């Protein structure tokens, strides 16, 4: 199949690109390299069925022509910075909502058959329903990131209802693993490289989180390619969660250090930080997909990758 991956030079996108190429698909990656890394595409670039188009999804007039002829679009490009959303209040609207609308409209006008859209478990806000199923009512949104993704989901489902475009929506927990560039694991590793004796942790460390290895995420996305979904929503995660202190302990163990944990206090690290994230994944596992890695294994695989690719630790946080 001819497949377009937006944000294909990013963490999840580049892993997906390699898997799609290995499966025999023709893959076109769209990326502006704002956060994506060219080095992540070195393996893909050696394949004759790979094409890279560098463009701005929000403003570039080449978008429609670039997508034209594709059978599937996997839309991963987004601003994923939840913590600093209020430093740039318009960024989530532009990069998560307006870009998604441009992708949807390009799919409609060119006759793309299927769109797979990466949303987030953050759309559930601070729900009282744990583990949280896909049909859980949305509470008040607690982050600009989650609000923008919820709005983008609405547009995607409206296009699925009003056009011939088949849409599949994935609500991810936080993803980890090879090529990870953003989040608490890389933050903690950077801090511990500077000071082995102290680790500053936002909140009180009891925040409960769920994580998923990137290879499991990619397998789930690929499992829905070509399926007759029309506005279908799938949670992606593992049947477990851990505390922030658990994760910090595993990271320290992998690094061979025993620092003092210094907590900033409170039950969350920042505005919009959900203190308990745990998604019900019965719907996606009912299709045959199962995660291979536990949360601890995903965290430790991430640390190992960062240590083997120290150039990532030198990137601007």
Describe this structure in words.
- The structure is a single chain.
- Helix 4 (91-110) links the parallel strand 4 (72-75) and strand 5 (114-120).
- The protein is 35% helix and 18% strand.
- The mean pLDDT is 94.
- Helix 1 crosses helix 7.
- The longest helix is centred in the N-terminal third of the chain and has 20 residues, at 91-110.
- The chain is of the alpha/beta class and 317 residues long.
- Strands 3-2-1-4-5-6-11 form a seven-stranded parallel beta sheet, with helices on both faces. The chain has a two-stranded parallel sheet with strand order 7-10. It has a two-stranded parallel sheet with strand order 8-13.
Quick description:
With 317 residues, the protein is α/β, with parallel strands linked by helices.
What letter string, H or E per element, gives the SSE order? EHEHEHEHEHEEHEEEHEEHEHH
Q: What does the average pLDDT come to?
A: 94
How far apart the termini lie comes to 36 Å
Poorly predicted ranges (pLDDT <50, ≥5 residues)? none
Strand fraction equals 15-25%
Strand order, main sheet: write it out: 3-2-1-4-5-6-11
Total of DSSP H or I helical runs spanning 4+ residues: 10
Give the strand tally: 13
Give the assembly state of these chains: single chain
Biggest β-sheet description? 7 strands, parallel
Radius of gyration: 19 Å
Characterize the overall form.
Answer: globular
Structural class: alpha/beta
Question: Helical residue percent?
Answer: 25-40%
